[in-house]
Write a structure and sequence with these properties.
Blueprint: E1 2-6, H1 10-21, E2 25-29, H2 33-40, H3 51-60, E3 64-67, H4 70-75, E4 79-82, H5 97-109, E5 114-118, H6 126-137, E6 144-148, H7 158-163, E7 168-171, H8 175-185, E8 192-195, H9 197-228, H10 232-240, H11 261-274, H12 280-292, H13 295-303, E9 311-315, H14 330-340, E10 344-348, H15 353-359, E11 365-366, H16 370-374, E12 379-382, H17 387-390, H18 394-400, E13 405-408, H19 415-420, E14 424-426
Parallel strand pairs: 1-2, 1-4, 2-3, 4-5, 5-6, 7-8, 9-10, 9-12, 10-11, 12-13, 13-14
Helix pairs in contact: 1-3, 5-6, 9-11, 9-12, 11-12
Length: about 425
């Protein structure tokens, strides 16, 4: 089947590559000529496990290509998937301008009947508007229908999450659209849940916000554990055996980040408010997460008189391990606070340094190993659970740091082992 994909970010590029991997002919569209040439050369523009290999394989075998010529890509496509960003506006609502741009380009380019499939996360009811918008600008007498097909991938495991998804959600308003999407996904051999468009849109938000709520709940409980002398890891283990709760998303830490949870919780809360409803649970998750991100800085500020002139080791910059994405990362909340107090920051991240340099090119010192960051440091913050950081031994902190004072936002290390090694160690809920 001939498929076009608009957008080559995490959603669009992963979808396009995986469609090619199962046998479809795919043309990925992006406005950036340099990015297109980079992808044609076999270089992946994002850090994502196994993605570059599949890009090279399917491009070589002729099932995958890239272009800036959207008209050429869209005119003869059987299905056009929209995977562009829907960034958060200041009021928490979703910015749909990129969706609108692509919709108009499609309307002005298609030359035969096709299905437009929105993979981007959009507020409930958006697909109705997209369909009407396309019809308003159609140049030719063709039938164009819009379907919803939200993604559920996690950065760092996006390829696996797409090829081995727990389920595929499709939202359609006609039998023809449903059958076409079923046919597209048939080679994946995955369970398909078919609903109407608005239900599909809501499934995406409801799923993400439930997981965000779960994280914020555990972080809230972790903060209480510290006050009453309980251990959040023991509590989580005891909870995990309950099949109604499960073991996933029970790790306490310094809050969720990335491209989905922060944006989607705020967007759903905004949607509720626009409809005159107070979504109390989701609002609570947002509030808890906001407070949690600077929890370690607040703890350290109570312990230290000032950060001025102190060497501060920062281990991890990305919002989680396995990705170069900085969106809503705890480092972006804490490093400005440290710089404000004139701390001398030495930062290590095996993947995220390049992106962080774009924001802070000279204000902090970037190092190539965790040990280099720790050497002579007065205090250390752990913001990301990279394997290179997990491999550190308690003695590495004791022997390298001037003052072995560690604030661990990911509960990477064992408190007893750190204490025995002579490290003053603070974590979350333990």
């Amino acid at each position: 089947m001939q498929i076009a994909v608009a957008g080559t970010g995490y959603v669009g590029l992963v979808a396009g590559v995986c469609f090619a991997e199962v046998g479809h002919n795919v043309m990925c569209v992006d406005v950036d000529e340099k990015k297109v040439e980079l992808m044609k050369s076999g270089v992946c523009p994002i850090y994502e496990q196994n993605l570059e290999e599949l890009m090279q394989k399917n491009y070589k075998e002729g099932r995958l290509d890239y272009t800036t010529d959207y008209a050429k890509a869209y005119k003869n496509a059987d299905a056009i998937f929209i995977g562009v960003g829907t960034p958060e506006k200041p009021d928490g609502s979703a910015n749909l301008s990129y969706i609108a741009t692509v919709a108009r380009q499609i309307a002005e380019s298609v030359e035969h009947d096709c299905l437009v499939v929105v993979k981007s996360t959009v507020p409930v009811g958006t697909n109705d508007k997209v369909e009407q918008f396309i019809h308003d600008f159609l140049d030719k007498d063709v039938k164009v229908e819009v379907a919803s097909n939200p993604e559920f991938l996690a950065q760092g495991t996006a390829v696996h999450d797409t090829l081995h998804a727990a389920r595929i959600i499709i939202g359609t308003e006609s039998r023809e659209a449903e059958e076409l999407l079923m046919k597209i996904y048939e080679p994946f051999h995955l369970p398909i849940v078919s609903v109407n468009r608005r239900s599909a849109e809501m499934i995406k938000y409801a799923s993400n916000d439930f997981l965000a709520l779960k994280i914020s709940y555990m972080n809230d409980i972790a903060n209480l554990c510290e006050l009453v002398g309980a251990n959040i890891e023991d509590v989580a283990k005891g909870m995990s055996y309950d099949a109604r709760i499960g073991a996933k998303f029970l790790n306490a830490g310094i809050g969720y980040g990335g491209s989905c949870f922060p944006k989607d919780t705020k967007a759903l809360n905004y949607l509720a408010e626009q409809n005159g409803y107070h979504l109390r649970t989701v609002k609570a998750a947002i509030d808890v997460n906001k407070e949690q991100k600077t929890m370690l800085f607040k703890k350290a500020s109570q312990r230290l008189i000032t950060f001025t002139g102190l060497k501060v080791a920062v281990l991890g910059l990305t919002f989680k391990a396995g990705t170069d994405d900085l969106r809503e990362a705890p480092s972006l909340e804490n490093i400005p606070l440290l710089l404000e107090q004139k701390a001398d920051i030495y930062a290590y991240d095996p993947v995220g340094e390049e992106n962080f340099r774009k924001k802070y090119p000279t204000e902090i010192t970037y190092v190539s190993t965790p040990e280099e960051a720790l050497k002579g440091a007065n205090v250390c913050f752990v913001f990301t659970e990279w394997g290179e950081i997990r491999q550190l031994a308690p003695a590495d902190f004791k022997n390298n740091m001037r003052t072995a004072l560690v604030y661990d936002g990911r509960n990477v290390f064992d408190p007893k082992e750190m204490q025995e090694a002579g490290v003053e160690y603070h974590s979350i809920g333990r």
